[in-house]
Amino acid sequence: MLTKILKTLIGILLIPVAVGTAQAFCANVSSMSVDRGVLHVFERGVLVYVLFHVLVLRPVYIYVIGHEFVHVLATWLCGGKVVSFNVSPSSGNVLTSKTNFFIELSPYFVPIYTILLGPVFLLLEAVGKGAAFMSTAFVFLMGVTLAFHFVMTAEALKLRQSDVRKSGLVFSLIIVFVGNLVIVMLVFCPVFKQLSFVDFIKSSVSNSGEVYRVTFEKILKFLDSPRTLIG
Fold first, then answer.
1. What are phi and psi of 85, to 5 degrees?
2. Of 13, 91, 109, 163, which alpha carbon lies 20 to 30 A from 155's?
3. How far is CA 29 from CA 24, 65, 100, 208, 222, in A?
4. Strand, coil or helix: what is 219?
5. Neighbours of 194 (CB within 10 A)
6. What is the 3-state secondary structure (H, E, C) of 146-196?
7. If you compute the radius of gyration of the chain from its CA atoms, what whole number of angstroms results?
């Protein structure tokens, strides 16, 4: 209980980071001059998945496999060991030798299928055949897989998964929100050349600092106002 309360407080303190990162993301994306053809291909990919999800099938099993696989990768990155790995058409479970918020929440902000597209695309591009077609297909599939990630993640979060309950709702939502913005920008940068991940991070830090400053000033002003009234 104490850990959850602490994480909730940390989550509240991280709200300015979420605001600053969102501002930086929107500013970077809105300022770029994108090839409309590339953007349309990406948008079609998003639309195709959303229609498929709503009208045809919710690919829960595919999501569960990716979700649990990210748990595994996060565990390895943190120096842990995977004791067991189980997936079914409706749910999954990974038992690990250690856990932390990164291991618990990473599946919600790591679009694993989008990331896996990168090596596949580079491999096919290295072959040198149909480079233009492969580029178009990559952007289209990036739209499909990102839409898949966001739609399925939203549905999973609505169910209040055990991963989210362990870390607390406020803390989890902030980490997932910021994590998604960072990872999506990281994915966008190689495709949309006008974007710079370094500039995005710098803007996020700068914006977050400004939000903290303004918030702190408003809190001080609020705390000082009763004294002013009394005086």
1. -140, 115
2. 13
3. 9, 31, 32, 18, 35
4. helix
5. 13
6. HHHHHHHHHHHHHCCCHHHHHHCHHHHHHHHHHHHHHHHHHHHHHHCCCCC
7. 21
Torsions phi, psi for 19 (to 5 deg): -65, -45
pLDDT tens per residue across span 146-172: 999 999 999 888 876 677 878 788 899
Nearest 5°: phi and psi at 59? -75, 65
**Spatial separation of the C-alpha atoms in residues 179 and 109, rounded to whole Å:** 5
Residues 6+ apart with CB under 8 A from 97: 75, 80, 81, 82, 83
Q: Which two tokens stand for residue 15?
A: 């709200």
Q: pLDDT per residue over 209-226, tens digit each? A: 999 999 998 888 888 765
Q: Where are the domains of the chain?
A: 34-195, 197-231
* 3 state SS of 231: coil
Partnered with residue 82 across adjacent β-strands are 96
**Angle, alpha carbons 135-61-155 (nearest 5°):** 85
Query: CA 24, CA 212: separation in Å to the nearest integer?
Result: 15
197, burial (CB in 10 Å: exposed 0-12, middle 13-18, buried 19+): middle
CA 129 to each of CA 122, 125, 133, 191: distance values in angstroms, whole numbers, following the listed order: 12, 7, 9, 19
For residues 24 and 200, is the Cβ–Cβ distance under 8 A?
yes
